[in-house]
Amino acid sequence: MEPIVFIGMMGAGKTTVGRAYAARHGLAFIDSDQELEARTGVSIPTIFAVEGEAGFRERETRLLAELLGREDIVLATGGGVVLRPENRAQLRRRGIVVYLHVPPEVLWERLRHDRHRPLLQVPQPRQRIFELYAQRDPLYREAADIVVDGGRMKPAAMLARVEDAVRGYLSGRGERAVIAQGEGDA
Ligand SMILES: Nc1ncnc2c1ncn2[C@@H]1O[C@H](COP(=O)(O)OP(=O)(O)OP(=O)(O)O)[C@@H](O)[C@H]1O
Ligand SMILES: O=C(O)C1=C[C@@H](O)[C@@H](O)[C@H](O)C1
Ligand SMILES: [Mg+2]
Asked: Which CATH superfamily is 4-180 part of?
């Protein structure tokens, strides 16, 4: 089967929900950020510091192309993977792409104490999350086959919602953008 790919903002739960999805379905789990750290031997903040965001994005694009070629994996992407048109095109071509949509207010509650995400190490991180959300939400939607709405819900509830949406998507119609909405939306 082609890769199941989670996209969405920092803190949306791509790593948490993606790992759980893979475990439940007997698929291998790969986290793009963790894979880049393992391959370079340094942290994401260090890659940003040494090579700049542009250097990081180059590595991210190359890794995405490689991983999309694999079978039977769940891939959690970095929050900025949709910024490059070329990455969005790759995601459209291959992969069952699931956008975990979480409102910025909830993301802020989760990330306010975070020190590991270089883009949030700014004087006004809350405002930054809202700006990034406004910029990126349309790009995630453009790249996604499935949009799953989450709010203040536990990872297990989000996982259940993802499973329903993927099952619906695979069970035939193959329509894009199956939207799961309801309880828990913030
Ligand atoms: N549904 C949830 N409810 C509450 N906290 C959550 C939920 N999902 C994830 N978290 C917490 O929010 C933080 C961010 O989650 P996670 O690392 O899975 O996000 P991510 O989408 O992978 O972000 P990034 O793009 O930065 O890697 C973690 O501390 C995680 O435990
Ligand atoms: O939102 C982003 O642009 C990023 C999110 C993280 O997953 C990392 O990929 C990195 O910190 C950049
Ligand atoms: Mg992650």
From this structure: P-loop containing nucleotide triphosphate hydrolases (3.40.50.300)
Residue 118 in contact with ligand 2 by CB distance below 6 A = yes
Q: Is 119 in the pocket of ligand 2 (CB under 6 A)?
A: yes
Distance 157 CA to ligand 1 centre (A): 13
**Residue 70, SS3 per DSSP:** coil
131-180 confidence digits (pLDDT tens): 999 999 999 999 999 999 998 999 999 999 999 999 999 987 555 544 55
For residue 106, what are the contacts with CB-CB under 8 A and spacing of at least 6?
Answer: 150, 151, 152, 186
Q: How far is the CA of 117 from the centre of ligand 1 (A)?
A: 12
Q: Looking at the DSSP assignment, which residues form a beta bridge with residue 97?
A: 5
Query: Is 112 marked as binding a ligand?
Result: no
pLDDT (tens digit, 9 = 90+) per residue, 117-140? 888 889 999 999 999 999 999 999
- The domain segmentation of the chain, as residue ranges, is 4-180
